[in-house]
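Q: Give me a protein?
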Amino acid sequence: MTTRLGSFVAAACMFAFAAGATAQGGDWVAVSNGYSALVLEEIAGFSPEMAGSLGADGFDERIQDLEPGLYERSMASSEALLEKLEAGLERETDPRVRQDLGILIKSVEDNMTSSRLERENMLPYINVSQTVFSGIRALIDPQVDRERYPAAIVRMQKYAGVIDGLTPITELARRHSEERFDVDGLVGPYRGEVEQDLERAESMINGIRELFEGTDLEGWESTYETLAGQLHDYNDWLRDEILPRARADYRLPAVMYADALRNWGVDEDPEVLIEQGTKGYMDIRNEMEALAPLIAREKGYDTDDYREVIALLKRDGAIDGDKMLDHYDSVLRELEAIIVREKIISLPQRDAGIRIATEAETAVQPAPHVDLPRLIGNTGEYPYFVIPQLTRNADGSWRQTDDTYVAGSWTLTAHEARPGHEMQFSSIIESGVSTARALFAFNSANVEGWGLYAEAIVRPYLPLEAQLISLQYRLMRAGRMFLDPMLNLGMITPEQARRMIVEDMAVGESWAANEVERYTYRIPGQAPAYYYGYGKMQALRTQTEIRLRDRFDQQAFHDFVLEQGLLPPDILKDAVMNEFVPAQLN
């Protein structure tokens, strides 16, 4: 799953709570949220778009800080923030508040470490077209109150530098990079990334206009034309100044790759990930080889090869673009019936949202994902499962992807909707966990680990062909766990990785290309988090079953896990073993 910037925060965060308060009884969440508010205030100081998309009030008309001295100012701010949090840790006695303070302190320290390493190793590069589109998109959204829409015009005016004597964001971004041009030893962005960003830039620029055209707002056209011209000029500057400084090798410096793994919640050395991932890969492939002949006989296919069976399932189960929404909605209803019948987890008393992405959204995120509403001050908005828009071929037929056939729709819906991410984040909204546990404890290992685990707990009840694709998706996640580090350690080439994904994992060329991009320069270090987090969840469930034996109740277990928010695996294990297990034994 990939979400919009700043989506991870809980509804319970309130800026009014004073950080100096002490916890008493049931007030611990309020006190914890007071400390989280300090961190959110710092975020708002440098990235108000993020704070606004989190749901914090008062930042809709402000824009990202790219003024000179940004690094020095942000590091000084973080140091002052750490002093306040550490003082709170000395003062507070409630163990839950102290645990949350530990989460917050680690979050700030990790951010400072990443900022320092970025400063020491990398030439700054900003994709301004996407930054501006995302900033406007955060305000013009079906789940955003219409009263906030006019702020999008003000934000655009500030991006363009046409009010308040502001400098256009494109000019600030240029200066931000240029001031580091003469620093020896800095590594430029990967050339392929910059080239692809430039190819997609026009979709972002047009997408800004389309966002405004979809509203009843007036008086934005002139500013948009100014901004669009600035963005075109900036992209020309990227071609002239950044591309020549871009690196040909996609690999990050070793210290940056290690930092990326840590930030995504993967606390293992690359060599260990390769060992664990390759073992899991073979186990899953063996299961697929055993299941494929059963499906072939059921479908009348003249092959037992799982790769060929998957190709035939894609051919026979293709879903047209104009039928996509109805089909996924139907699959969701069937999954919910399974969840209730098998007592897997408690479902919310409302429907899950599903929609088709716009063209610009599809350009930003071409994979299915969950789009989250603001979670601070949430007034009833919930996550949406977003399906990328399909395009038509010249003959009018629909151009299919790996996400647009019947057998694959089951697992995808389970991962992104129910019992996966939609329920995961809806639980945060509904249960009111502390902001530290909902936002600042977030990493891909705990989020995506749940998504992959959600696939596993419904797989036994799916049609056989859907079970095979569920295993195929798990095979891909195990592959991610070793291909990502192998590529970044130079143990395999991108072409070898692509061939393995296509030929052995039975994935299409487009998805395979996106996977290789992901490992090499889009978000290196993130992909191993899926299978890594899944392994942690599987281990936790097994250990809980061992402790409880006949008294283990999977629905109660799953409900408890979601009620904890986005806790890292080690803290979640502590909560299960010291709270859930004793309660079940009493």
Observations:
- The first helix runs from residue 28 to 46.
- The mean pLDDT is 91.
- The chain has 24 helices and three strands.
- The two ends are 38 Å apart (CA to CA).
